[in-house]
Fold this protein.
Amino acid sequence: MKTEIVQGSIQAISPLHHGSDESTGSRSTLRRMKYLVDGKAIEFPVISGNSIRGILRRLIMKDMLERLDYELTSLKTYHMLFAGGTLESVSSEAGNINLGLRKQMRDSLPALSLFGSAIGNQMIEGKMKCSYALPLCNELVDYTGYYPTPPISIYDQLTDDYSTRRDDLHGERAEGDNAHQMIVNFEVFTPGTMFYHKFVMMDCTDIEMSVLGHVIKLWESRPYIGGKSSIGLGEVYLKYIDSPSPSEYLDFIKSNKELMITTIQSIEELLK
């Protein structure tokens, strides 16, 4: 058994909005999670590990297909690679994965092995565990002790931003009437807010570790998280300590292109 941790920081360069499933009127709040602080359960705004993992999965799978110059023919395969797939009840041999194919997927598609997926009626567990990103603040120092915590409260790192919506294309108005305008408020982390984040790598091969290094580089080239990036929100600066080198994974793709394509074709045939 081998466990390796790659940890680092995420810094908000612009206002960052990672929304919750709830809103109050026209105001959208940040996603929150309860943490025990001084014996009390208090809700703190966080960035979910699932959100970060989803960003990285889409980046690495798109990059892999582009490097293989391969175009998917199956929507199910696309969903399996880019969104983690869906477990299906299988009554025939179709959708069943034998041990040979399962091993082939692990060996020839290291990005899939790292992120995992549901394929047919089985799960391939991902070897990478992606943690929540926690804001560095004096209230959460017990949970982010790896980084020096600035003497600042979480409440000093939150503010509101807003956008407007107009009804220019909806409904009929009498001549001379102006379009109605609605202001939508959303809670954001202020620019400069720092977050502690880590990846826990479980029994990964050197190539799988290299996949992580490559996808971090891909994320650095498109450094956004959360909503409303189209209007400038969510830009971040990433700094991961001892991030693995991408070179071994990139060399693997060059040397195993045909095998990787064959494996993807087998998956597409399986998921027909």
About this structure: Residues 3-270 form one domain. The chain has one domain: 3-270.
